[in-house]
Structures are given as structure tokens and as C-alpha cells.
Amino acid sequence: TDFWLTFGTNSPFPLIAIDLQIRIVNGSTPNTVYIQFTELGGVTYPYFLTPQEVKTINLTSEQKEAVYNTSNGITAKSVRITSDYPITVYVLNQVSASTDATNVFPVTALGTEYYQISYTAGVWDAYAVVAIEDDTNIYHDGSSSPVATLQTGEIYYRTSTTDMTGAHITTNNPVAFFALNRGTLIPFDFTAMDCLMQQLAPVNTWGKNFFVPVSSLTVDRVRIVASENGTNIIQTGGEIKSAAGSQMSFTNLQAGQFVELEVTLGNNGCYIKADKRVGVCTYLTGSGYNGMSISDPAQAWLPAIEQSIPNALIAPFIPAGVTLLNAHYGLIVTKTLTKNDTRVSIGGAPSVPLSGGSWYDNNDADMSFYNMPLTNPDASYYFTNAAGLIVMCYGVGPVESYYYLAGSAMRDLDAAFYANDIHFQDLEENPFCENEVLFRAEIEGLHPDPESLKWFIDGVEETSARDQLEWSKTFATGEYEITMWVRYETDETVSKTGILKIETCGSNAGFYANDVYYENLPNTTICTKDVVNFRAEIEGINPNPGSLKWYIDGVEEIPAQDQLQWSKTLPTGVYQIEMWVRFENDETASIQSTLKVELFWVKIRNIQH
User: Fold this and answer.
1) Please, which residues have CB within 8 angstroms of residue 486's CB and are 6 or more apart in sequence?
2) pTM, whole model, 2 decimals?
């Protein structure tokens, strides 16, 4: 519900020719979004969004001037976006023949340690740091004194005629960090030039396991940056390439060093495994290199496999100005075993299997990817897979491209704990029915001495679990604050907290569709010529309004709120049905299932007497 962003120079074009867009994707609740430009004195522009609405805002000339960085130093060229309910945010920097886009991270996902990841072989490399707190000090490559001290909403913009990939940027407060190359070639000696724009993730969210999908251009580039000395990488499916500043070995990389790979459709993507956390960006190549006569350089942050999510809502970027973009794609990554469970709802229609492309399976990673054409420029695309997916999005045309991360998590992987394999940041949204909970810590650099790892339940240490990476406990129904305290080898300490919810499930709440119990629905096909009848069976429902809600493919059925029985006409398709309930004790439960519907038909056999 809170985002900060800025834009970099799209060289060598004048600002009047450049199209700057902000895109807001709303959730399932009517929402008001507020956009505030720091340099314009904090004037706020409100926008009302309906459920699942995708809102594209084209900045005016005045607004573009207030967010567009062109010179080194400190400015106030930032934008703050806030909302009453959760949203996702994307932005586009576009002019005919030079375009890129990026997702925008909420303030809850920002950090204090970053590495620049770029690609310079053209005009100038650049990055921007956005302060979200007063008295924020910026340090570049271990500088003893700050290169800048910023107040809330101020920007530190830095350019270089050389590639700054691997530059280490640290701060005393969380900041938003953007790689903003003014124009480059990928690879370095092939046309054509394009700007790059990508918000980069803080080091605490970097991972060790990555799967790199490949765009429909058939050949992409990848950069892997080490965050710690002595990093070793194993990869399959990629070919190491030489680039300015890159290493030609996968072993013993030092912090900030990087390797560059080329990945192709013929190898079904690339699997990367590191022994220490790394950051990965993937790039579209220039039209003079990939043999497709389309595209330009574009950059996207690639999250670790551990950052997958069950659904993502995206839409193609359609520039307001002159553009050469003529094809848009969703690039979906998921587990091979459950790839066929991936579905998409286009413009709110019933969800269907992916179409227009084909699956590419990578046996080494047990991962698959799919390039799906986004052929309806005015529709949203809602991708779902309960086993988890990561969604990228890109658009191409003659010497023009954009590429961005469309959907993933931003989980803290620095020192994390899991409860029954659920990440601590996801616990509150995933209540448990079972009472026995297995806790597991994943920590690098744990201090070898005793009392280096402690666990707390509601502020009281669980002394029997001290220094235990794995332990279990049986909980009564209720809500608990779980804290893991860690001391590293350096004697630094951190604590991570999650909210554990234990609920009474099973017979306490359930629902039927055409008299089929929800647990049996995934193995049942409902044949109907009319409607599907839903019926809830709940003990101890809260008497207040809004205590019973129904959702189809993530969208609430408003007329069915607080209805124990209701019906709806559903065309042939597969639907995700969710019943949410609040009990008398204010505990909540979410009961979900998959509903398959086929139109009613009768087979008549002609019998001759």
C-alpha cells in the first residue's frame, strides 16, 4: 500500500517525446489510490479503482519534469503512491525505439544493501536511490563518508561512462534502488541501443536457486552477481560469455563480481545453483543479434525459485505515444510436475489452460516455462497455480522492447524460518488446521558458540529449542507471535517474527457445490445446463455482517456475502472457489477447492426395431 519511484534518462530523446506511465493493478476490494509528486509540493492525485481493475496513468508534461532525472546529484524527483488496500505497481519509460518497464516494490520489501546490476555498451550507466526516511546516508563501494544524505522523497542520481554492475550501495535506512541505464547494446557490439529500467531487490531477498526462462526471441542474456566472497555457482543450460567487467569462471567469485551467460530455447532455459546468495537479472537482446529482426535491449529482475506465488494479475503495456511495439507476452515459470494446473482468466472470464504457446521443460531444475501471447491489449490476465509460479512480462517490436518481473514474492531469505514449510512472512495469511508445527531455520554464518539461536513464543523463550535449527511443538487453537533470534559469526544479531494461526478446521466449516463436498470437487466434473448451487455448513459463524464471503478465481461474489446458500451460472471451465468465514471467537478460516464445470449434454442412440 506504499511505494516510491523515480525515472531515469531515456537517451538521447527529448522529454517531450517520451511517454512515462504508471500502472496500478487493484485487488478484489474497491480501492482509492493516491499519487503524490514530491517536486510539485506534495499535490495528491486520487484515483478510484474497482475490483481487479488495471489503471494506466500517463504522466502530464509537468509531472514528467517532476520525476525525470538527467544529471548527477540530489533532487526531489520522486513519486509516492499509497492506497487504502493492497495494489501492485508497474512503470514504463517509452519512446519509439527505446523502451523499458519495471515492477515497483512496496516499502515493506525495501532494504539497506544493494548491488548495481546493469549492462553498459552505449551511452551511460546510471542508478537512482530514493529515500523514504529523513537523514538517509548513501555509501558507494564502501566509501568512508556518505556520497549523499537525503531527506524523505529526495533522489541521489549517479551516472558513469563505464558499467557499474557490481557496485555496492549501502544505506543507514531502507531505500528504493533503481538501475537506470540511459542506453546500451546487448551484446555490446550488436544493434540496436535501448534504455534499461529495473528496480533492484535488496540483498536480504536474494536466493541460491534460480530458473531462467527464455523469451520468444530464442536467445537471452543473464548476469549473476555475488553478494559474498568465495561464491561458487553451478549452472546447466547456459553458456558463459565475455563482457566488460565479467568473470570467466563460476568458482570463488568475490562480492560484487559477476558472470554473464547466454541462454536459449534449445536448452529449455537455465538452472542456476549457488552456495551463497546471488542476484540475477535477465535481458532481451538486440534485434541485430537474435536473428528475429525485432526487439532491443531490456532488463528484468529474476527472483529465486523460493519467491514463487500462487497467482499474478498482469496486463500488456500499451504506450500512449508513438511506438513500434506489436507483440506482448506473459512468461510463466512453474514446477514441471504441476505445470498443467496453470490457468489464466482473461478480462475476468472463466479460467482456462494457457494457449498460444508451448511448455518448455528443464529436467535439471524440474521447472517449466511458457511464452503466452497477450493478444487482448485492453484485458487483464490473471494467472493461477496453487503449487506456485513466477510471471515475467515483455513486449517486442522492431528495435523496441520492454521486460519486467510481473509477479513474485519478496520474502526475506537472509535469515528465515519456516513453520510446516510456510515462510515466516506468509504465516499470517496461511492458518494451520494441524496442531503440531515443525519449525525450521535457514541461516548463513551462524555463530558457533552456544546461545546463537533462540526461539520465542509471545515473547517467552522456548528454552528447549535453543540453538536448534529444527524443532516442533503442539499448539492449542489460537494466534501466536513466533520470533527467531540469531547471532552471526560477526557477532551481529537480528530477529525475525511471524504470526502463527492455529484454527479448528474440518467439520467446523465446509461447503458443497451441487451437493458435492469441497474436498471431493477436484476429482469431480459438474455437468449442468443451468446453475451451480453452493451451500455452506458452518458451526459458530460470527453474527456480524461480512462474516461469510465467497470468491471465484480470487474475485469476491458480492451478492453471495453472508449467504449460506446461493447459485450462479458458470460456463464450461475450471474455477478456484474459496469460502472465507469468521467464527464467533473472531478466528477466520479459508476453505478452497477446484470446481470443474462442463455443459450438460445427452447422448441419444438410434435403436432400430
Assistant:
1) 415, 441, 443, 446, 452, 453, 493, 494, 495, 496
2) 0.84
